Amino acid sequence: MHTITLFSLLAASATSNALKYAVPSNIKVAGCTYPANYTVSDLTISTDEVDSDKNITSFHFADPGTGIDTLCSRNSTSKPSSVSSNRWPCDNQKVSFIYQTTGIAGLTMVEVACPGSTPQFEASGLVTPNLTCTNSTTGSTCVAKQSPILGEFDSLQPTPPSTV
Fold first, then answer.
1. Global pTM value
2. In the predicted model, what is the mean pLDDT of residues 123-149?
């Protein structure tokens, strides 16, 4: 009996994801799976030397803990998210991203934590992909050398108010 219980506890701890951020006790939601880690696959970034509106960022995002699996992209027809002009929504509206090459360079992933809870919070985490780029006279195309890229959410903050 004790062996089975011990084995069950070990199995449960091996499958749970440790959070890299603290969840304030006043917002803990029973039964909620908070975002812990994620993968980014097939990351491609294309830049146009003349027209930055033609720049493209695309990749596949998956969070095994929350079950979110979605495509993310920014292209000439994309509209920024309602909270920031440099934040782009993925196909699943619970996920967005920021890709930047200056300041804190890299790909920041943002995921709504416990959708529908009040107040609403979101988890975020940064990955810094190692890229291989091909340059031409019109621009460049870069792809991540590693796929998938493993990332961890390491911040939990209140969702910013909409700017729209």
1. 0.85
2. 95
